[in-house]
Amino acid sequence: MTASHRRPVPLAKCYRLLNHGPTVLISAAHDGQRNIMAAAWAMPLDFQPPKVTVVLDKSVWTRQLLEGSGTFVINVPTLSQIDIVETVGSTSGLDISQEQGLDKFKAYGLETFAGSHVDAPLLEGCAGWLECRLIPEPHNQNQHDLFIGEVVAAWADERVFSEGHWHFEGHDELRTIHHVAGGHFLVIGDGVDGKVLPRSAD
Amino acid sequence: MTASHRRPVPLAKCYRLLNHGPTVLISAAHDGQRNIMAAAWAMPLDFQPPKVTVVLDKSVWTRQLLEGSGTFVINVPTLSQIDIVETVGSTSGLDISQEQGLDKFKAYGLETFAGSHVDAPLLEGCAGWLECRLIPEPHNQNQHDLFIGEVVAAWADERVFSEGHWHFEGHDELRTIHHVAGGHFLVIGDGVDGKVLPRSAD
């Protein structure tokens, strides 16, 4: 359990949970049902107020729940959760053989905790979480499958993210994962600093 | 020079150059001037035809060139270029003390080569390149600083990307870099595969 390591992230720095491009899990809940899915196409959109954008295909059930509730959560999963990410990215919560949709949380034994501002469940064991309120934009949603949200609360596992920076050293199992295609991911590595070059003489 | 290692990437797989969330360099040229800037907020938007989206602040000169020409390039830089990324992300091509804007390519000794479909220069030494045609969307551009492009050609350094997959092993200097904040980056690590979990018994 990571509850004891979970700390709030100031909204001014919450974009840093996504800035390095991790693959994320989007969760949403509405009208007694809930779902979670993988999304590699998510990024920050603004600093203040903090906004994010994520691409959700028309076929996914999480999108329906998100549109119904007007809220969602971006969970930033870890290397130790890679099979969960692959699983919820490869299965649908909509199962037409059942009366109700498949509850992936129950089907795969996923533990959750409640957010502070949204109905969507937050997945235990992630490295970071962003609670988001949907900013409805019909053109972007219908034309591009692009959803925009304002971040209203954010959290991180202090073992790997604190003071606005990631520090994965000593916690390889908590490193973020970055999907390429077909269940193949790249794990994030260590930090390095860039410096500004001098201009050439001429 | 990487020219001898540069290979075309099929458009159906070009999203994989961005899917793992690298920080990129956006280049554009218009009316005899050119510029290049860093952008951490870029991602794929669609597979077929391949589209991408990138956030460009109203203050940046590259945005003006991109709007003028209707084309741009997403360059995927490498660890060996980290100081270039930090430099072009920290300086402006608009220098009001000069009659013309600062040519960052000349000021910092950046070598380029020509694309196949666009006016924008492609930066030598990157791991990948996506030539893009702007899909004008005034609302997204004005309201969200969000620009959408269709990828019309793509290239990669075959030493680290081929057959639709990254393979950085043995080429650490060509790994992609992922900005967190303030010139601090995370370097991408090695690959790992996820697998789909069985459903619980109940």
Automatic annotation (TrEMBL), chains A, B:
Domain Flavin reductase like: 16-168
The organism of origin for this protein: Pseudomonas lutea
Family as reported in the entry's similarity comment: Belongs to the flavoredoxin family.
Protein name, per record: Flavin reductase family protein
Cofactor(s) listed in the protein's UniProt record: FMN
PANTHER family (UniProt xref): FLAVOREDOXIN, FLAVOREDOXIN-RELATED-RELATED
Gene3D superfamilies: Electron Transport, Fmn-binding Protein, Chain A (2.30.110.10)
Keywords: Flavoprotein
Pfam family, one: Flavin_Reduct
InterPro entries cross-referenced by the UniProt entry: Flavin_Rdtase-like_dom, Flavoredoxin, Split_barrel_FMN-bd
Source domain of life: Bacteria
Residues passing through the membrane, by range: none
Keyword Flavoprotein: yes
